[in-house]
Amino acid sequence: FLASARGQSAATATGSFVVMKVNSEQAADIQNSLSKLSATGKGDVAADLLRQAGARPELIAALVRHAEADPAIFAKATAALNLAKYRRGADQLEKLIQTSTREQDFQQFLSEHSWMFGSEYSERLDRRKWTRDENADFILRRTTDGYIELIEIKTPAAAIFNHDTSHKCRYASRELSMVLGQVANYIEKLDRQRDSILANDKEDTTKIRAKIVIGRDGDSGDREALRRLNGHLHRVEVVTFDELLRVARRLVSYVGGSLLPSGPKENAMPPIAAIDQPLDSSVASAAEE
Questions:
Q1: What's the rounded Cα separation, in Å, for the pair 61 and 72?
Q2: Which of 21, 61, 163, 258 is least crowded, fewest Cβ atoms below 10 Å from its Cβ?
Q3: Residue 77 to residues 52, 71, 84, 135, 257: CA-CA distances in angstroms?
Q4: pLDDT bracket for residue 12 (50, 70, 90)
Q5: pLDDT tens digits, one per residue of 255-266
Q6: What residues have CB less than 8 Å from 77, skipping those under 6 apart?
């Protein structure tokens, strides 16, 4: 390329090098051009490439072919794109937790950022209605076995526990009791209609599980009460919005640490989880402990 640009013959190319006869002024121009290929410049090139790819399907196909042939070549780029997405999503969730009390806001946000539920899920299904009278907030597919799981979203403002001072214990609040009853009823209907759903929709709802997102962590007593409650619940798990936010922040911390020389290195997570899938909430919790 350099030889052609200078009007010279490509026959002077030897191996991986192009031998060029240039004077000192020309050499200075070439060195100056190369020095301008800074990290910022390369980033601009990558951004321009992505903009072009959006309007050119054949360019996307070419990128996929190269990625299949040499997966490592795009690993860092994929992680960088995920870092931007995850960081923005975590910031948005934190702001939403502090400012919104509308279920619809959180349902919409988490349907667009289902990665926050962890790598135990591989995709979100578009379909929400599986029985005649019930609409699920949304349905996720499990990564390991391909079965579907029900997700029910409430708000961070909902209380999770009340305090029984006479017995020195905590018990489920009205809000939590209501959603537990709602989810139990929906699971029972899915169990009853398993054969019909399997025949018509090719989805097996046998022993389907559910996850409820509601409220915030509270104090240490509330967190311990939630751990005990989840230990007694069957096919249902209750998580707080703070737990979802911790998973998102941990993912941002890991991916940032893997890309940036000055980024955090402690509590490193498995690279595959950071590049390909979000982290499982249990993995993130264990790492924090």
A1: 17
A2: 21
A3: 16, 11, 11, 38, 14
A4: low
A5: 777 666 554 444
A6: 46
pLDDT one-digit tens code per residue, 83-92: 888 889 999 9
